[in-house]
Structure prediction request, 318 residues.
Amino acid sequence: MSKIEKPKFGNIIVGFEQSDDAAVIDIGNDKLLVQTVDFFSPIVDDPFEFGKIAAANSLSDIYAMGAKPLFALNIVGFPIDKLPKDTLVEILRGGNEIANSAEISIIGGHTIDDAEPKYGLVVSGEVKKENLIKNSGAQPEDVILLTKSIGTGILSNASKKGIITAEEFNIAKLSMMELNKEVGISMKNFNVNAATDVTGYGLLGHLYEMCKSSQVSAKIYFDKVPFFEKVNYSSQNGAIPGGTKRNLKFFSNYIDFNTTLEDYQKLMLADAQTSGGLLIAMPEKNIDEFIAHCKSKNTSINAIGKFYSSGEPSIQIQ
Prediction:
């Protein structure tokens, strides 16, 4: 995108140059339009579950910016002559169930004949100007909070390779189907300074984007980061996906790892997530109340580190 001319038309609040979660346009009357699109090929075998995961993942960008989703459109690639049409129905039914949970309607979309199934949503949302949350507002001394455990990429690969059982992968699947709705809609009440969702670039990649956009550095503690059960085991037994390895290679120049960490533990932190949780920057005085609120909504949340002032943005792992 660095080779593409920056957009110059419209009342753009957030464009592609900020590496933020969604595009944001000022539509007047103190309202901002927030829009995102995301789709991918199946991460699970069951088409209904795939639809749910892809839809939850698409909606996550809206919640990460403190916005409320309004409606969505389907975006579909499907090999219509190779797979039963009922498979497509199940994918769309899964997406619709998640849309119902988000209290929005899917009111159209576009489908193409493709060699491999792909599914996701274009989601439109809105937020008041004063409630918009970007990834660029983190302040020195802010606490770093993470919702949801990480390791979905590793566990998905481990399941495909037979390293773990379907039952052991199930907890990660359930997490990927879970909306970030409760946290997203409540952030405006707790003085959140910045947020993003943890997806393809992994925890380290998205944390570094937050550091770079906010011109701060971060220190996180490995033993505070929540991992799904079996992520450690799977990482040591050949389940590291290629995307996770590429993440670590790309961001490693900006990260200072504790010398006690093993290579597989570094990869765990860089694991490419699907429909992950939210990464949040918040003043320390607000975290106890916020954590209590999240837990009252049955949403897992953990304090994993702090931001601090520095020269060049970087990440320390202790």
Remarks:
- The chain has two domains: 12-131, 143-317.
- The longest helix spans residues 47-64.
- Residues 143-317 form a domain with the Phosphoribosyl-aminoimidazole Synthetase; Chain A, domain 2 fold (CATH 3.90.650.10).
- The chain is about 35% helix and 25% strand.
